[in-house]
Write a structure and sequence with these properties.
about 30% helix; about 25% strand; about 100 residues; four-stranded antiparallel β-sheet; alpha+beta
Length: about 100
Amino acid sequence: MMILITYDVNTETSAGKKRLRKIAKECVNYGQRVQNSVFECVADTAKFLQIKNKLEKIIDKDTDSLRFYYLGNKYKTKIDHIGAKPSFDIEGTIII
């Protein structure tokens, strides 16, 4: 299933800047960045729970925000992109 992960981290302190970097690094491990604080991740339920658990441990629930949008398995019909930074097919073949 496709999960859209978005976050907003308070970066007024050095601890907040550190949390922002940690969240971004964790999200890169599971999906592709489509905007500054938005990641598209394809994962099964177990993998998603793993991601969610890791991110929940990083954020400060009093000042930061973390959102998960569940687009399901037929996500390709639910995404319409216009403009810069076109994405690639996460489940497709990558040639290096």
